[in-house]
Design a protein that fits this description.
Helix content: over 70%
Shape: rod-shaped
Structural class: mainly alpha
Order of helices and strands: HHHEEHEH
CATH architecture of the largest domain: Orthogonal Bundle
Number of strands: 3
CATH class of the largest domain: Mainly Alpha
Distance between the termini: 40 Å
Strand content: under 5%
Length: 255
Amino acid sequence: MNHPLPLREQMKALEHLQEVDFKIDHLIKRKTSLPDSVRLLNESFQKMQLTTDTKKNAFTEVEKLIRQTEAAIELNNDRLTRAHTKLETVHNSQEFQAANKEIDQLKKLNTTLDEQLKKNKQDLELLNQEINQIDTDFLKLKTDRETQMTVVSSESAQLDAEIATLTQEREKFLPSIEVRISRQYDRVRGARGGMGCVHAVGGRCSGCNMMLPPQLFNEVYRANDLQQCPSCHRILLIPSVSGEASSQAEAKTGT
């Protein structure tokens, strides 16, 4: 039967385990943030698709108006021709005035229709330019999205490989730590933003910066039993030269 290592050695292994877990957490956070760039491009892609559809629908409607206006002009010209013919066959001044009045009204209507047709054609040209520009932008955005998806996929695979390597490294430290300690570490880590153990520095917990009772601080250095901060419940470690960087990180990120 294997006897557990002295607690001091287990705490060193736990310190290394925390360092590896920090790295894994950082990589997972990076991987989680990767899809954001694709998501933003997808949102832009969808908005541009909606804009394109709206512009093309407007283009279709303006084309319809042009056809209707051209048909109205053709019909009005026929009426104008008939009105001129009628003018040649009038028999009195009253009929002459009525025919002239009809011709004037038809000419005014033709002017209105011509102006409307001109405006519709200008609108159609403008819409055509806008659609061409949107199509160009749309194609570029589509290319950017496909490129970004390829980059994200590559980076994600690389991060997965790094996480797998660190996970294997993590497994090397677990046999040196009693199950009860590693379980407690995992529980606290889950509740405290990924930080399950911290250093006791200058009489304080470097995780939450609370002063530790003097007796507890002394017990940490004796390393006879597992000690936890009464405030944040993180496992307390003895500072070491290798742990100075971790202590600084804990003081910045711990609460």
